[in-house]
Amino acid sequence: MVTEVVTQCPSRAADNMDRTFLAPLLLLILFDACQSSNRYMVGFMENSKYPKWLSVFIRAKESGAAVRIRSHSENEPKLNSEYLIQPNATILIKISKEYEVTGTNKSVQGISIESDQELFILIHYWVESVYQYTSTSCLAIPVSSLGLSYYAVTENNRAEILIIGIYNDTSLRVTGNIPFKYNQVTTDVLTETINEFETVQLQADSGSLTGTHIHADKVVSVYSGNKYFNQRVLKNPLIQQLSPVNVWGTVHITLAPLHCDYNVIIVTGSADTIVNSSCGQTFELTEAGSSTYVAMGNSVCQLESNHPVSVTMIVLNEANPLSNSSIMVRVQPLQQVKELVFFDTNYEMDTSLILVSDVKEILLDNGPISLSSVRNTSFYFIRSPVSSGHHVISCDPACSVSAYVFSYGFQECIGYLIISNEHAEH
Length: 426
What we know:
Blueprint: E1 2-6, H1 10-20, H2 24-33, E2 38-42, E3 52-59, E4 65-70, E5 80-85, E6 90-95, E7 111-115, E8 120-128, E9 133-139, E10 147-151, E11 159-165, E12 170-182, E13 185-194, E14 199-204, E15 213-231, E16 234-241, E17 249-254, E18 260-268, E19 273-277, E20 282-285, E21 291-297, E22 301-317, E23 326-330, E24 335-344, E25 350-357, E26 361-364, E27 367-370, E28 372-373, E29 380-386, E30 389-408, E31 413-417
Parallel strand pairs: 1-6
Antiparallel strand pairs: 2-7, 3-6, 3-8, 4-5, 4-7, 8-9, 10-15, 11-14, 11-15, 12-13, 12-15, 15-16, 17-22, 18-21, 18-22, 19-20, 19-22, 22-23, 24-30, 25-29, 25-30, 26-27, 26-30, 28-29, 30-31
C-alpha cells in the first residue's frame, strides 16, 4: 500500500498523518533521540520542457521509521514535515514544482530526508504533454555512501550536472571535459563555495558532459543526466545520482531486460585503464576522466578492469515499437547481502527484477529461483517478472548481488537500483 502525502497542503498532510501514522508527539520524541542517523540529500534537475510532477517514494523496513523532510528556511513553499511510517509501508510525497532546479544559477533547492532507520527512497519525475507521457526514477543514496570526488555520466546534448551542498562552507571545483554553462557564463573550470541545501547546476546544450570531474572538500550529493533524450521521435529525461570514485569497482556485469538493447558508458578515474569484456572487446582509457561509449545489443557481459571504473547503461525500450522511453542506470559492483528489500510502485506497468549474483540459487519472497550462468564467468543472472508491492531477496549464507528494477508501459519505462548503501569492492 502506498500512502500519498502532498507537501503543499499541510491540512491534507495532517489528515493523512492522523489516519496512517502514529502520534506526532511520539514522532518528535523519536527525532530528539535519533535525528539524522540516516540522511539523504536529494534534488531535482531540470528535466524536459513539459509540465511535470515531482515526487519521492519512501519505504520503511520491518521496524518502521521516523522520517523528517525539510528544505532551506528561505524556500517557498517550505518543506518541514515529519512522519512515522508503519513497518513495511510506503508513502508518496508530492513535491512542489518550485523545487525543480532550472537554468544554471546557484539556488537553495536541496531537500534533506532524515530518519532513525535505513530507508528505500525513489526520486521520481512524471512528465506529460499533448503528445506523450513519460517518467523516470532513480534510487537515492544515503549521505554515508557519498564522497568527495565524482565523474559525471550523460548522453549527448542537453546534458546537465546538479551538485547539492550537505555541509556549510564546502569548496567545490568542477573541471569540464567540454565547456559548460554556469551563471550565464560558459567555462570549462568552476570554483564555487556552497552551503547546506545550496544547488549548483551546470548545463551543455550540445555534446556530453561524461568525464567532467567534480571535487569537493566536504561530502556533496551529485546528479547527472540529460534534460531529455531523443529516442525515435519523442523525448524523455535521463537521471542518476552519481556514486563517488571511492566505491567504484573493477568487475561489473552488464545486462538489459528481455527485448531491450543497451549502450554502455565506461568512465575511469585513473590513467592507463584497461577494460576487458567477456564478450570479446577490450577498451583502453588513457587518462582520468576518459570514457568509452559502446553499443552492446542484448548481450550479457562481464567487464573487468585493472583500475576502478564507473559503468552506466542506457537501456533502450524495444519491447514496444511505439515506445519513446529509455533509462539510465548505473551498474553497481556486486554488494554482499544476506537480505535485500525492494518495492515496485507502479500498478500499470510490467516490471522485471534484473539481478546478478555469485551464487546460482537465491530466494525471492521465500521462494527459490535459479539463475543462469554468465558465459565465460563465475557469475549468474536472472530476469524475473515481479508484481507491484514489497519484495525480499535473501540468500543463506550471504551472497553478493547487483540488481535493478525495470518497468515499462505503453510509452514509458523506468529503472532504478535497489541497493542504496554502496561499499568498495572487497
